[in-house]
Write a structure and sequence with these properties.
By secondary structure, this protein is mainly α. It is 85% helix and 0% strand. The longest helix has 55 residues, at 170-224. It is found in: Cell membrane; Membrane.
Length: 227
C-alpha cells in the first residue's frame, strides 16, 4: 500500500509542472520577448479599434431608403431643386451626398454633372476607407515582428549554449526558446485577425460603392428623362 502511494505522488508532481499559462510563457520569455509581445498587443488593440470604428461607419453609410430616389424624382419633376437638396442633407449618406452634388450641377451639360459626381464619389470612397490600410499593414507586419522575436530567442539560446562550456542545460535555454515560440504564435494571431478584419471591411466597402454607382446611374437616367 505504501509503494502505491509513492508511485502516485511523483506523477501528480509531474502533471503540475507541465501546467503553464500564457502569462507565464510571456514572463519566462525574457525582456526581448516581453517587448515583442507588448508591441504585438498594442497592434492588436489598434486593429480591433479600427475594425469596430470602420465597421460601424460603413454600416451607417450602407443604410438605404428605398423611397429616396422616388422622392428625389418627385422634387426634381416639379422643379423644387432646393427641396431635393434638403432631402439629401437630411439623409446624409454617401449616396445622398453624390446625388446632392449632381443636383447642384443641374442646368449644366450632363458630362459636367457626371464628372462632378465621380469626383465626389472618390472623396466618399476615401472617407469609407479611412485607416483601413492600417489593418493591411498590421496583417503583414505582425507576423514579421513575431519572427523577429523568434530570431532574438534563437540568438539568446545560442549565446547560452556558447557560454555553457560544453554543459548544455535545457533550463538555460528556456528563456530563448520561450521567446522564439511565443512571439511567433503572437505575431501569427495578430496577423490573422488583422487580415480577416481587413478583408471583411473591404467587402462591406465594395457594397457601399456598388450602391453609389447604381444610384448615380439612376440619377443620370432621371436627368435624361423628359420633364
Amino acid at each position: 500500500m505504501v509503494q502505491n502511494q509513492a508511485e502516485v505522488l511523483p506523477v501528480a508532481e509531474v502533471s503540475q509542472e507541465k501546467t503553464l499559462s500564457i502569462l507565464d510563457l510571456i514572463i519566462d520569455g525574457g525582456v526581448g520577448g516581453q517587448i515583442i509581445m507588448g508591441i504585438l498587443f498594442l497592434l492588436l488593440i489598434v486593429a480591433v479599434y479600427i475594425y469596430v470604428e470602420r465597421f460601424l461607419a460603413i454600416k451607417a453609410a450602407s443604410k438605404e431608403d428605398k423611397n429616396f430616389m422616388n422622392q428625389i424624382k418627385e422634387q426634381i419633376s416639379i422643379g423644387n431643386i432646393d427641396g431635393a437638396k434638403s432631402l439629401c442633407s437630411k439623409t446624409d449618406t454617401p449616396v445622398s451626398n453624390l446625388i446632392q452634388k449632381g443636383i447642384s450641377r443641374i442646368g449644366k451639360p450632363l458630362e459636367d454633372i457626371n464628372t462632378a459626381i465621380e469626383n465626389a464619389g472618390k472623396l466618399e470612397v476615401y472617407k469609407l476607407e479611412k485607416n483601413v490600410s492600417v489593418l493591411a499593414t498590421i496583417s503583414g507586419a505582425a507576423p514579421m515582428i513575431g519572427f523577429l522575436g523568434t530570431v532574438i530567442g534563437m540568438i539568446v539560446s545560442i549565446h547560452e549554449i556558447a557560454n555553457a562550456g560544453g554543459q548544455i542545460d535545457i533550463k538555460m535555454l528556456s528563456d530563448g526558446l520561450y521567446t522564439a515560440m511565443t512571439t511567433t504564435v503572437g505575431g501569427l494571431i495578430v496577423g490573422i485577425i488583422s487580415y480577416i478584419t481587413y478583408n471583411h471591411l473591404v467587402v462591406k466597402t465594395d457594397k457601399v460603392v456598388y450602391q453609389m454607382e447604381a444610384k448615380t446611374v439612376e440619377f443620370l437616367d432621371l436627368l435624361n428623362e423628359p420633364m
